[in-house]
Amino acid sequence: MAGRARLPSVGDMIDVHELTKRYGAKSAVDGLSFTVRPGRVTGFLGPNGAGKSTTMRLILGLDAPTSGSALVGGRAYAELAAPLRTVGSLLDAKGVHGGRSAYAHLAGMAAGSGIPRRRVDEVLREVGLDPATARRRTKGFSLGMGQRLGIAAALLGDPAVLILDEPVNGLDTEGIRWIRELMKSLAAEGRTVFLSSHLMSELELTADHLVVIGRGRLLADAPMREFIESHSGGQTLVRSPEAERLRELLRAAGGRVSLDARGGWLVDGLATAAIGELARHHGVALHELTPRLSSLEEVYTAMAGATGEYRTEAAR
Amino acid sequence: MTRRFRQALAFEWVKFRSVRSTVWTTAVMAALPAPGAAFVAATGSLQPDDTVLGGSLTLSVPALMLAAVVGALTVCGEYGSGTVRTTFAVVPRRGTVLAAKAVLVAGLLYALALPATAGAYLVGDALLDDGYAQGEPLPALFGVAAAFSVAGLLGLAAGTLIRHAAGTVTAVIAALLLPSMIGPLFGGAERWVAGSSPTAALEKLMQTSDASTDAVGSLGAWPSLLLVTGYTALALLAAAALLRRRDV
Q: Do B247 and A98 count as a contact with CB atoms less than 8 A apart?
């Protein structure tokens, strides 16, 4: 991967517009619109069954939309001049024949897209599958090895756009860290990285931007930090050596004050800046003044609860 | 051939030879006819009115079924394993994928069936008694090899339509065997029912005594092959139309 540098370009965007996919009476994807831009990792978040995999299959042209469009670089996937060189994908079901070796799987894909054979060895090395393992039939592969093969297949065409469905599934901690660093470095090279997960904690560490869906509908499309801030409870953690006096002042100013488990006051109903100014005005020294951000997990749980859906998911 | 098509064909070839099921089925198909000729000669089981060509190719009928299975496996294996998604991600034009599979299956089966059946004839010719009519091996053997290609394509079309390996194999074996089995039930229409199957076309080309006018009709060997090729082409077109529309 070294030495490859890309400039973000409009051609590398994923553009989903009013996308709808119905199976009989049930909508798997329902009027979904969002854009995935290059140069950052975009997380695709939603509980199982929210329509993430369906959306990805629609982008890859594997399923046909009922209405709307999903374009990569302004074109439908089937219209791309060199699909594998433009879009690398890893789907939830890996799409590997158990009786075929990892090497033959990649060699076939390379042959089918005019990619030189040496690229197979390069991606195998890149994902850490040694040559002996790669020559074995994939039937005996562990979940983690299968996932590495899937990533190798996605990287084969050195694509500008990566679409990965649950890439950390089945990986151990070391593997998860590897994927996380890989995704970030691919995005840093200017590529468009779109990865789905139902693990909110995972996306929180990897993604710069979030597209959140539930029941096939868009719930949010925002930068990670903005998403968490706007959905956090607006609480502030404040600590002072004059704890009791500060509490009186905060209450008098209209704040709701509670004791934080780690010491200090948790303040609701007052902006962080207002608390700082209040303390300065009354000459109270502050040792800490921190806006408390909810974790993505808490935010999603709150959102899911608010829309009255996925209570069992939210309860996890 | 366009670059896209050449790449799709190369892709199919790598997939074909990197899985045991397709390789072994094809190998057994190609190996079957010659020992069959030797077996018939050794047991002396040939009917007096049969030909050397027909007797030598006795086992080309089961070999023809294996050819159909080979065609079915090239597509059912993809659906069974989910590889079909990878394939369509690499070659999104599904008509191109099916065309590449068809060219591979038809070309490979022809290239293997021709020497396999010609070899069987030479074995039978050397071992069988002189009492039998010879039959005319040329140009019939080219037609026999073509029948293998057509059977493979029928398997490919059925596999694309049905997707499941077991169901597809059952269907193509039925298409090859049933007409001659249930033909007699149709009385006077027997020769129309039994005569329309790929097996009947093969038997006519083989000039075996089984291919009597009563059993498989008076339609000649080459017109029979043409008929089978015609409906196989229609089945492939139907498969292509469905493949384009269907979600995977």
A: no
Give the percent of chain A with pLDDT over 90. 64
Q: Given this model, what pLDDT does residue A177 score? A: 92
* Residue A88 banded pLDDT, cuts 50, 70, 90: very high
Minimum Cα–Cα distance from A163: chain B residue: B89
- Closest CA–CA distance from residue A269 to any residue of chain B (Å): 51
What's the CA gap between A184 and B62, in Å, rounded?
57
Beta strands (DSSP E) in chain A are 14-23, 26-36, 40-45, 67-72, 87-90, 161-165, 192-197, 209-214, 217-223, 235-239, 256-259, 265-268, 288-292
Model pTM? Answer: 0.88
- Residue-level pLDDT at A201: 79
Give Cα B25 to chain centroid, integer Å: 12
pLDDT confidence tier of residue A306, bands split at 50, 70 and 90 = low
**Distance of residue A100 Cα from the nearest chain B Cα, in angstroms:** 5
Query: Could you write out the DSSP letters of every residue in A60-88?
Result: TTSS--SEEEEEETTB-GGG-SSHHHHEE
pLDDT band at residue A305, thresholds of 50, 70 and 90? low
Q: Å from A45 to nearest chain B CA? A: 23
ipTM over 0.85: yes
> Which of left, alpha, beta for A136 (phi over 0: left; psi -120 to 50: alpha)?
beta
Comparing alpha-carbon positions, the chain B residue that sits nearest to A115 is B7
Q: A 94-123 residues with CB below 8 A of B?
A: 94-101, 104-105, 107-109, 111-114
pLDDT band at A307 (very low <50, low <70, confident <90, very high): low
Identify the CA nearest to B127 among candidates B199, B60, B36: B36
For the ranges A229-238, A306-315, B45-54, B80-89, the maximum mean pLDDT occurs at B80-89
Q: Which of B10, B245, B248 sits opposite A112 (nearest CB)?
A: B10
Residues 6+ apart with CB under 8 A from B75: B101, B156, B159, B160, B163
B44 vs B65 pLDDT, higher one: B65
- Contacting residues of A for B7, CB less than 8 Å apart: 111-114
Q: Are A89 and B21 a contacting pair at CB < 8 A?
A: no
Chain B hits for A94, CB-CB cut-off 8 Å, are: 82
Residues 21-80 on A with a CB inside 8 Å of B are 57, 60-64, 77-78, 80
| A3 close contact with B: CB closer than 8 A | no
